[in-house]
Design a protein that fits this description.
Radius of gyration of chain B: 20 Å
Distance between the termini of chain B: 7 Å
Structural class of chain B: mainly alpha
Distance between the termini of chain A: 10 Å
Shape of chain A: elongated
Strand order of the largest sheet of chain A: 1-2-3
Strand content of chain A: 5-15%
Strand order of the largest sheet of chain B: 1-2-3
Low-confidence stretches of chain A: none
Low-confidence stretches of chain B: 170-184
Largest interface: A-B, 41 and 40 residues
Helix content of chain A: 55-70%
Helix content of chain B: 55-70%
Order of helices and strands of chain B: HHEEEHHH
Radius of gyration of chain A: 19 Å
Number of helices of chain A: 6
Oligomer: heterodimer
Largest sheet of chain B: 3 strands, antiparallel
């Protein structure tokens, strides 16, 4: 069995194993953390005053009060289910890569941090879009973030990380 | 002894240049084939996807109706949107192919493989979702929001690796043995 086939099978197996652990044990806490982190970066976005109202299951509710408008947009709900799941394939790819385990651990940690930042950005864009009254350009940015950046992040991050972490880079992984 | 020159490889030879090319290609393709694409093309792709899924599901004997871009089942409706067509997955795959060092011809073959491969992967995804609507509606949200998001991109990666090994790698193995070529 060639190296690349082993890598693919191992990545798929790891994704199947990591997913229930992530979904049932880690995701609930992670969503609270990322939801709160978005409010920390609130001053960077023209929301006005924003606070985390509640987080249930995979949904976060924000209460947003626009600057100077005395207008409260209550209950802006963001469903994070599909947003945060990209951590699973990202970690599966990193840990399936044939390199030192220590490098995989570091790669997984950095990858999780990169994914965390991408989730904050994605949620902020969603809030910006909803708060703007469904602006067309912000909607396009939201769709691009969801459909391309979040979905492609596992492959993109892994490709860059493997280029540094594996001797010979991607070529040596693909052509074994 | 004549040695054929290897085709010039274009792409990101370093990890960061790979990432930059990937992002630029993804942005450009998103803008051309979605954001600024003619509405009739975007809608046409969505309607074609809905029609194909509807046709297959109907052929299995299921009670289903097609209304524009919506597949109507007895228990719920499936509205097909652009994200359901595999278009975004194709942008990601295309970005991987273009960013990976390879010749122009190999990249073209990569896109041919990608169009068919992602079409069938996506069709499989939609048929699994349709099956869950008919037989296990309670599992639909889980499959739609979680399972496919976790595994779909790995299937796209498999296609990419397949292309590198079969199209890009196979040609290299031929070129790496020039002594086997006919002497003139």
């Amino acid at each position: 069995m060639s190296g690349s086939i082993k890598f693919i099978l191992l990545a798929l197996l790891l994704a199947i194993l990591i997913f229930p652990i992530w979904h049932f044990f880690i995701q609930p806490s992670y969503i609270k953390i990322v939801g709160r982190a978005v409010t920390v970066f609130n001053p960077l976005f023209p929301f006005g005053k924003m606070e985390l109202y509640s987080s249930e299951s995979a949904r976060i509710t924000y209460k947003i009060e626009r600057f100077g408008a005395n207008e409260i947009t209550a209950g802006v709900v963001v469903d994070l289910a599909s947003i945060v799941t990209n951590i699973v394939p990202l970690l599966a790819l990193v840990f399936a890569t044939a390199t030192l385990f220590k490098k995989r651990l570091i790669g997984g940690a950095i990858g999780t941090l990169v994914a965390f930042v991408s989730h904050i950005i994605a949620i902020s864009i969603i809030l910006l879009w909803q708060n703007s009254g469904n602006s067309r350009s912000l909607e396009g940015l939201k769709i691009f973030t969801d459909g391309i950046i979040l979905a492609g992040l596992p492959i993109l991050y892994w490709s860059v990380w493997a280029g540094f972490a594996v001797k010979g880079g991607l070529n040596s992984i693909f052509k074994k | 002894m004549q040695v054929q020159a290897r085709p010039k490889k274009i792409g990101g030879k370093k990890p960061l240049s790979f990432a930059i090319i990937f992002l630029v290609v993804a942005i450009v393709e998103y803008l051309i084939f979605y954001e600024f694409a003619p509405k009739f093309l975007v809608d046409g792709l969505i309607e074609a996807t809905a029609f194909i899924v509807f046709s297959i599901v109907k052929a299995t004997g299921a009670l289903v109706r097609l209304s524009g871009m919506t597949i109507e089942f007895s228990r719920m409706n499936l509205e097909i949107v652009y994200e359901c067509t595999g278009g975004f997955a194709m942008f990601i795959f295309s970005a991987c192919v273009i960013a990976f060092p390879s010749s122009v011809k190999q990249k073209i073959w990569g896109h041919v493989l990608g169009i068919f491969g992602i079409f069938f992967i996506n069709l499989g995804r939609l048929l699994v979702l349709s099956w869950s609507v008919i037989h296990k509606p309670s599992a639909f949200n889980f499959i739609h929001k979680y399972l496919w998001h976790a595994t779909f991109i790995l299937l796209v990666l498999i296609l990419w690796i397949l292309w590198v090994n079969v199209v890009s790698g196979g040609k290299e193995r031929k070129d790496s043995h020039p002594e086997k070529k006919k002497k003139k």
